[in-house]
Design a protein that fits this description.
Number of helices: 6
Helix content: 25-40%
Strand content: 15-25%
Catalytic activity: guanosine(37) in tRNA + S-adenosyl-L-methionine = N(1)-methylguanosine(37) in tRNA + S-adenosyl-L-homocysteine + H(+)
CATH class of one domain: Alpha Beta
Strand order of the largest sheet: 2-3-1-4
Largest sheet: 4 strands, antiparallel
Shape: elongated
GO molecular function: tRNA (guanine(37)-N1)-methyltransferase activity
Structural class: alpha+beta
Keywords: Cytoplasm, Methyltransferase, S-adenosyl-L-methionine, Signal, Transferase, tRNA processing
InterPro entries: MeTrfase_TRM5/TYW2, SAM-dependent_MTases_sf, TRM5/TYW2-like_N
Family: Belongs to the class I-like SAM-binding methyltransferase superfamily. TRM5/TYW2 family.
CATH topology of one domain: Alpha-Beta Plaits
Radius of gyration: 24 Å
Number of strands: 8
Length: 217
């Protein structure tokens, strides 16, 4: 009986690590920052460069409005990236999320039929390379990629005027400069990032603040 349980457990583990599960994991990772940035303590934006292969549909510009309604669930959404771009003549390129779509057949059958009404089929499906950079990711994506897995990510912050307030735990302090710079870059209207210190001003009874990045005012 114990031997049979061992066999069943082994088969279950094998099933979890099949090529299909690896493929899904690979698709999920494609839009994440490069793994090489993990553990970075000083922000190096050049290390966030990453070239990926993405798909797009080339469509007649006259049909753009109804076609984009069909493709909306599949479109690629990144910061500082236009997922609809000009192509030759009156044609438009609609870029698709590689997590969901790597070939025309990945589109739902009903959506393929709806696209066929506009003479769109697998012949309109093409691929190209896209260079991702630091500018394409949100602060949360960057910090999750950079901070070691055994560290907690930045749980939250408050924006008071143009100042971002943090209360970092001790085990995050070695990354405080990087965290400050990332939040300064990514939070709209932020001009200064500060971290609350444990010490209290004895005269006015408020927590002292350390400027991590930005204007020191």
């Amino acid at each position: 009986m114990c031997f049979m349980k061992f066999i069943i457990s082994s088969l279950a583990l094998f099933k979890l690590s099949t090529p299909r599960s690896c493929e899904i994991s690979s698709k999920m990772d494609i839009l994440l920052p490069p793994s090489a940035v993990q553990g970075m303590a000083v922000l190096d934006k050049e290390m966030f460069k990453k070239t990926i292969s993405i798909s797009f549909l080339e469509v007649d510009g006259n049909n753009l409005t109804p076609v984009i309604k069909i493709l909306k669930p599949y479109t690629l959404k990144l910061q500082h990236f236009r997922n609809i771009q000009d192509s030759s003549g009156n044609k438009k390129k609609i870029f698709l999320n590689p997590t969901f779509v790597t070939n025309f057949m990945d589109l739902k059958e009903n959506d393929q039929k709806r696209l066929s009404e506009f003479n769109i089929d697998k012949g309109n499906f093409k691929t190209s390379d896209l260079l991702l950079t630091y500018e394409n990711w949100k602060a949360d994506d960057i910090l999750k990629a950079v901070l070691p897995k055994d560290k907690e990510t930045v749980a939250g912050y408050s924006l008071v005027g143009h100042i971002v307030h943090l209360n970092l735990k001790e085990n995050m302090l070695e990354y405080k400069s990087l965290i400050g710079q990332v939040l300064l870059d990514k939070i709209k209207n932020a001009k200064t990032v500060v971290n609350k210190l444990d010490s209290i001003d004895t005269t006015f009874r408020y927590f002292n603040m350390e400027v991590l990045s930005g204007e020191n005012d």
